[in-house]
Amino acid sequence: MTEKDFIFRNNSTSLGAGKVKWKAPSNIALVKYWGKKAGQIPANPSISFTLDACSTTTTLGFVPRNTPSDEFSFDLWFEGKPMEGFKPKIETFFKRIEPFLPFLKAYHFTIETSNSFPHSSGIASSASGFAALALCLMDVEKLLNAETTEAYLKKKASFIARLGSGSAARSIEGDLVHWGSHDGTIGSSDLFGIKYPYEVHGNFKNYHDTILLVDKGQKQVSSTVGHELMHDHPFAARRFDQAHENLSKLKSVFKNGNLTEFINIVESEALTLHAMMMTSQRYFILMKPDTLEIINKIWAFREASGTHVCFTLDAGANVHVLYPEEEKEEVYQFIQNELVAYCENGQYICDRIGFGAKKM
Ligand code: 2P0
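Predict the joint structure of the above. Result:
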């Protein structure tokens, strides 16, 4: 599919005022997206576990406007309060998506959004946030064009969400989502995320992700800046190739259920992401001392217990502790006993693999 396939054409139906509501999950990348080209095209493909508990719920109200206008018209509410600060981001998003949703200026929108996870927890809400808004907008498209299928709605929602935030393309479906062209993955595209199309071993069903909130402060470097640092990065070309290789290796791992190999790829991806930031100009260390303490504790416990607990990281200090359903009691006990002490105010979130966005 090309961009042209996502241009909305049938605008014959007129629509009165209404409201739609969607809940979209967050996701955690196993192979990381870090670096992009113009038009929100990823420099390398990525794959993620869709999460379950961490989500954004958005209600989109729409009212037809009486007079045509060159401006977008919308109000934004975050957790029950007006959110002026976030409006420029939405304005930019609307500009980017208008070629594909040409009805945007014909309505006044009221966007009401809330997150399931605590505000400023260091968990990025851009993935679930843009995914929920994209799904609401696609629901409006569906009301305007009754021929819109469920499959097209989801695919275009991922395409639209990507234009808000790259990782949001992976927050529509579950439970494993691949985004970005990759020779070994049939149907993969830079334009939207797809449900992972191959066999997945039972070991990966109901995988757990306990998110340890090590540093809830403002991010030191925004993702947008982080992605830019991959331009002219001395190791960029090799890193992008490595992501392709890791996705090919993961394909075998997902099939045969080899957790040792899974851990090897996932932890290496996390550390490579951080290594990229440590070796860029400017350079950043996004881990905190407690991030390293946790990683060392995980390694020691894994060695001693023979379990398959491992970690991954986002572009920040929080640690995602990943473990299979079969080992949940033992690993959860370990987290309680040894890791929670490193969390800011003892805060952590118990999440697990989820099955994608839901219409409310
Ligand atoms: C990922 N991250 O694959 C990587 C790993 C963070 C670390 O995608 O500029 O918010 O909005 O496209 O998607 C975070 O970056 O960046 C991200 P934009 P995004 O999940």
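The domain at 206-352 is CATH 3.30.70.890 (Alpha-Beta Plaits).
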